[in-house]
Write a structure and sequence with these properties.
Blueprint lengths: L5 H5 L14 H17 L5 H25 L13 H11 L5 E5 L6 H8 L6 E4 L4 H8 L7 E6 L8 E2 L2 E9 L8 E8 L2
Parallel strand pairs: 1-2, 1-3
Antiparallel strand pairs: 3-6, 4-5, 5-6
Length: about 190
């Protein structure tokens, strides 16, 4: 019980990460089962203990159910680390054929597994960038912008309407998590005349 949460405690990347603490679960089940067995053996001596235990389990279950059904969708957006990835793949399916290139952020996590899992996607026009804001990095690096590129930027990239020569970086759509926060921005270049 003491050693198993150490890996979760020393790791800071992709936090919060509930999966790392799962290794403690079997040990907690054993301790809980032992404690329940001891309480069961005392049932004849302390009948009120059974009533208290049943009430505690019932109250804990109602609390869990309320938190899961009501508050879970309104919780901290960080728990939805991959929230919006499914919606992003669906949106790319809708509009992706209109663009020669689709440059996607890999922040906070890679989007490639979502495309593989959900679509068996042909990666011909998908480019996975290491940048949080591939649209801005692309515009800084290229002197000749193109209007047939779709950018998928991280949530940290604020709304853009910047001019780059004769082109303007325009927000097309945004992808929402279940709590309403925005994990991804879809942007493209438009020729300004």
């Amino acid at each position: 019980i003491i050693v198993s949460p150490l890996s979760a405690a020393y790791t800071i990347e992709d936090t919060p990460n509930m999966q790392r603490a799962l290794m403690v679960l079997p040990f907690l089940v054993v301790v809980s089962a032992y404690g329940y067995n001891e309480l069961y053996n005392l049932r004849k001596q302390w009948k009120w203990l059974i009533i208290l235990t049943v009430f505690a389990y019932g109250a804990n279950f109602m609390y869990f159910w309320h938190m899961y059904m009501v508050h879970q969708k309104m919780s901290i957006a960080a728990y939805y680390r991959d929230g919006g990835a499914v919606e992003l793949v669906k949106k790319i399916d809708e509009v992706g054929n209109n663009y020669q290139k689709i440059i996607l952020t890999n922040s906070p996590d890679s989007l490639k597994p979502w495309f593989i899992f959900l679509r068996k996607y042909d990666f011909g026009n998908l480019i996975f960038s290491a940048d949080k804001c591939p649209s801005i990095e692309y515009m800084k690096a290229n002197k000749m912008p193109q209007s047939d590129i779709l950018f998928v930027d991280n949530e940290a990239c604020l709304p853009q309407n910047r001019l780059y020569g004769n082109y303007q970086l325009v927000d097309l759509a945004l992808i929402n998590r279940p709590d309403g926060s925005v994990p991804f921005w879809l942007r493209t270049m438009r020729l300004v005349r």
